[in-house]
Design brief:
Layout (H helix, E strand, L loop, with lengths): L1 H28 L19 H25 L7 H19 L11 H28 L6 H23 L5 H24 L5
Amino acid sequence: MQHGVRNLGLASSIGVAVFAVVCIVAQFLRNDLNWTHAPLSFYLIGPGGWVVKIAYVVLSASLLGIGVGFHRSLDAKSNGWVPLLLFIASGVALTVTAISDVATKHRDVSAHTRIHIVAAGTTFVCVTLAMLLQSLRLREDARWRSKSGFAFALASAAFMALWIYAFVHIPAKALVQKIVIALILAWLGWAALALSREAPR
């Protein structure tokens, strides 16, 4: 089982890295968008948008891999279905976010755009909750306990940043959104690498 967990972790770490690299590169290549004002969703349309869409789907698979990896790794008394289900939900919602239309102007809002908005919000909420709950579960497993403090601190930072982004009026809000995404990717990258290096029981 540990071999399978390590493979899931390795594949997921590659997926997180691919998403991060594609999205960072897109910020430099899209001269038509101001990266401090354009949310990440705007990069799904226009030149190279199809590459960003693929990166979203790749990250969706990584979310599933991380959820399944932890579910298999933790012992029975430390395990739980809720984090796994939240990781699955976030992955599905992220794919819907990628394939649904996004409006760059308020007057362009359509039913498809509303689906995109709901899916994106669902992704953020589900993944940050999954990160928090999974971090708490790690405390209950002797092999993961030493890593749980860092995991919980990073997950808490991402969770708090998300709600600041959602409810506090801040200039250059797209920049704040990308900070939230960076914190989430940091946790996911750490989790995937930790799973890829899991020692046998």
